[in-house]
């Protein structure tokens, strides 16, 4: 069966779990363990992408360039990747990242905003970087929309286009249908990045492969905010069990999680990823996890259930930067309750 | 869409996680919260079934009859279920369980040993109990074998037959095909009970439903040994998201986990369920989790990787009671290594 290329994002998406506080030595030892286990592409840096380290998104212990330089010095085989969200990272940052050792760039936009990736994808391709278009919050769009946005990224020169389930809100059949549609209508390979909010990360990854995806993301022990990502070791176990070829050694990737990553996480006093009611509701409602804190505040203020606020925001397809909307939604829900139940 | 009947096994399969040490008040408060949330059937008792409390399987804080009586006193709507493994529990125990308030009995056997359930299923039916045949370790059999064993249980009078993935070793397509085959060839409704060793519990449950299953098991927060069971709240979230009818209120079942169960677990100093390398290997190899300790001991003694032992045991379809085999397997692996690598 056709081979899967595995990108591990422990050191980027998983950085959220440790508030971006890895030391350079920690990053190096985790990256080396990932490479030794056979991971193809290792993504690293601030959880919010290149130069995400800021007052807005939280300062990292080091900046991304220090991390890239440190990790590049220990890798001999695996490709070093960075994520760039246009508006946070710039083309100058990209050049510097390349200079220090980044070989893969993933340019990430909201699923309906591929337009904003044009400049960065083109620049990355000109620099000779392997370039991935990364469509986030894909559950908010139908397959035709996803395809049109993916086609834009393809036309800018992306080598691969990812359908990313940022809220862990998708179900296996939906992943299968969307990826199949992309596969039938694009020339570039397709990737999938999942989250485990509804417990579907591994199943969705398998669905994506079966529908034609060649690139799948994971993170060690599922490291990532809330319910976390698709655990790389679990992904490999399932691929191996199905006889699906990949470059990762199951025992070595399990050991990388147990012997290298877990002690670092525990030592930082951080939690191992596990679903809780918040992460479940993020997946159920299909909203940004960053809405949670705002929704909880609005819940207190307007005396409405946080969960109702999230569900309503999901229904309205609220996107990042629309946090003000949360107040309005909570206010309306509070008033609706009053109209519905006048005797209370 | 057709309705799912949800059985919650927090108080039975989840009992393993607390070494069967719930107080009567704890059992009552958890059961009441499950009933209030709308759970149809609440299973309780020792993790290894009726009268499992013993030197072999670990003594519970109370015996099953005390638990049944206590919980029956607080339930008004949900059905109280007990599990019985022939050879551990007897027909006399069944009578006593019924007398104290049990209304549903699940008679559990290895997937290829339905024969041993005949006496108990017939007796349960004569007593007027709602009777479930529960085929465990179903990943070890092909669909034709599962069907033949299920047909036996049906012929004894079972009201429902379950295909149970005791090791969390099954994948969604496999669950779909097996359940579909059962559905096409049995007259009784089909159920599915899953474990999360490969991260597939929720996806497998959804697959089971789509293939025709009417009964699905879960446990609050996924409570269960190792990676745990299908989390009931996650199951309900996914069913609701798909518009699949069920009697459980999502917010109430989430609150039951957060406000009632979690404080009890934390107070006992127990871990919330989460996958680890051991549970992953149990699912990957498809073996009884009780083999793990023996395999680790044999690994020390023969200097072979525990994981190789488990994989070999899975390949040989070793079943419970064959723990002696573990020594033999480890010994053979150690000698094979010597032959393969004579200079070591």
From TrEMBL, chains A, B:
<feature type="binding site">
    <location>
        <begin position="12"/>
        <end position="13"/>
    </location>
    <ligand>
        <name>substrate</name>
    </ligand>
</feature>
<dbReference type="Pfam" id="PF00682">
    <property type="entry name" value="HMGL-like"/>
</dbReference>
<feature type="site" description="Transition state stabilizer">
    <location>
        <position position="12"/>
    </location>
</feature>
<dbReference type="GO" id="GO:0009098">
    <property type="term" value="P:L-leucine biosynthetic process"/>
</dbReference>
<dbReference type="GO" id="GO:0008701">
    <property type="term" value="F:4-hydroxy-2-oxovalerate aldolase activity"/>
</dbReference>
<dbReference type="InterPro" id="IPR017629">
    <property type="entry name" value="4OH_2_O-val_aldolase"/>
</dbReference>
<comment type="similarity">
    <text>Belongs to the 4-hydroxy-2-oxovalerate aldolase family.</text>
</comment>
<feature type="binding site">
    <location>
        <position position="193"/>
    </location>
    <ligand>
        <name>substrate</name>
    </ligand>
</feature>
<feature type="binding site">
    <location>
        <position position="13"/>
    </location>
    <ligand>
        <name>Mn(2+)</name>
    </ligand>
</feature>
<feature type="binding site">
    <location>
        <position position="288"/>
    </location>
    <ligand>
        <name>substrate</name>
    </ligand>
</feature>
<keyword id="KW-0058">Aromatic hydrocarbons catabolism</keyword>
<feature type="binding site">
    <location>
        <position position="166"/>
    </location>
    <ligand>
        <name>substrate</name>
    </ligand>
</feature>
<dbReference type="InterPro" id="IPR013785">
    <property type="entry name" value="Aldolase_TIM"/>
</dbReference>
<protein>
    <recommendedName>
        <fullName>4-hydroxy-2-oxovalerate aldolase</fullName>
        <ecNumber>4.1.3.39</ecNumber>
    </recommendedName>
</protein>
<feature type="active site" description="Proton acceptor">
    <location>
        <position position="16"/>
    </location>
</feature>
<feature type="domain" description="Pyruvate carboxyltransferase">
    <location>
        <begin position="4"/>
        <end position="254"/>
    </location>
</feature>
<keyword id="KW-0479">Metal-binding</keyword>
<dbReference type="GO" id="GO:0030145">
    <property type="term" value="F:manganese ion binding"/>
</dbReference>
<dbReference type="InterPro" id="IPR050073">
    <property type="entry name" value="2-IPM_HCS-like"/>
</dbReference>
<dbReference type="InterPro" id="IPR012425">
    <property type="entry name" value="DmpG_comm"/>
</dbReference>
<feature type="binding site">
    <location>
        <position position="193"/>
    </location>
    <ligand>
        <name>Mn(2+)</name>
    </ligand>
</feature>
<feature type="binding site">
    <location>
        <position position="195"/>
    </location>
    <ligand>
        <name>Mn(2+)</name>
    </ligand>
</feature>
<dbReference type="InterPro" id="IPR000891">
    <property type="entry name" value="PYR_CT"/>
</dbReference>
<dbReference type="InterPro" id="IPR035685">
    <property type="entry name" value="DRE_TIM_HOA"/>
</dbReference>
<keyword id="KW-0456">Lyase</keyword>
<dbReference type="GO" id="GO:0003852">
    <property type="term" value="F:2-isopropylmalate synthase activity"/>
</dbReference>
<keyword id="KW-0464">Manganese</keyword>
<dbReference type="Pfam" id="PF07836">
    <property type="entry name" value="DmpG_comm"/>
</dbReference>
